[in-house]
Structures are given as structure tokens and as C-alpha cells.
Amino acid sequence: METYELIRSNRRTVAVEITRDGRVLVRAPQRLPQASIDTFLLRHQVWIARQLEKRRMNPPPPEPTAEEIAVLKERARAVLPGKVEFWARRMGVTPTGIKITAARKRYGSCNGKNSLCFSCFLLNSPEAAIDLVVVHELCHIRVKNHGTAFYALLAHYLPDYQERKKLLK
Predict the structure, then answer these.
(1) Burial classification of residue 69, based on how many CB atoms lie within 10 Å of its CB (0-12 exposed, 13-18 middle, 19 or more buried)
(2) Alpha carbon distance 138, 144 (integer Å)
(3) Which of 38, 58, 135, 160 is such that its CA lies 20 to 30 A from the CA of 81?
(4) Is the model's pLDDT at 2 over the cut of 90?
(5) Nearest CA-CA partner of 17 in 26, 8, 28, 7
(6) pLDDT in tens, 67-102
(7) Are residues 149 and 143 in contact, defined by beta-carbon separation less than 8 angstroms?
């Protein structure tokens, strides 16, 4: 088995992650015996090897510079409020605010106070995918979870949302 970094915390499950730089991170509950972790890693050995090979063959692009992020944020500030306004009017919802961040793991979110947050990296996606994320977050103003009512609402406004989802990078 590859060498890995073990992080123990107050979680209930074991998880394995391959980082951007190709390290293997294992997250485990505080009191889980090492034997259970070893068993978990053995069961996921093929997946880990496959992911490491993919990472070796196709290394991720270098991290963007602060200047590149600033330019992307500026573009996002120019594009996203108009899209939110267009779709919000069409859907009959009103977000309480819009924030642009440089989040890497999620393109958008909607908090309990109906304030929307978008990653500037969303702007690297095609127009149809950007609209999907905007509508997805606006749907959360009405439905706060990802249940059947949420996806029915999303499908009402974007019947092709599943195809659009494939466009997200």
C-alpha cells in the first residue's frame, strides 16, 4: 500500500482522498482501530492506485496566481449578478445578497438567510453550466435540501439540468 497521511477527528466514517499534489490522505474516527483502517485501505487499494495513476498521467494545472484570481473575480462580478437577477425574476425569488469567492471545492452555495455565494472559478465553465449553478442556488431559496421537491423545481426551470451538469469542470 502507498504511504498515506492519517488524520483522526470526530467523524464517524473512514474516507480516502488523493490531493492535488498526489498525496494519499486517510480521514478516520478518533478511536477506530488501525486494523479497521488497514482493511478499509485494502478494499480501496485498486481505486487508490487508479487515482494516483490518473494524477501521474494528467497532473492538474498549476494553481492560479493572485493576479489571475483577481481578474476572474472581476469577471464574475460583472457576469453573475446579471444572471442571478434574470433567473431570480423568472423564478419569483429574491436572494438577500451575492458574494464572489475563490472557493475551489464548490461553485455555489445558498445560506439560510438566502444569500448566494459563487466561486469565481465557475466562470471557467460554459455558459449553460454557469446558468445551472445560478438556478441551482436560487432553487435553494425555496427548497433548502436536495430532495425530490428540489430536483423537480430545478427540472421545471432547466429540464436539461443533468446534461448541463456534465459541462461543469
Answers:
(1) middle
(2) 10
(3) 160
(4) no
(5) 26
(6) 999 999 999 999 999 999 999 999 999 999 999 999
(7) yes
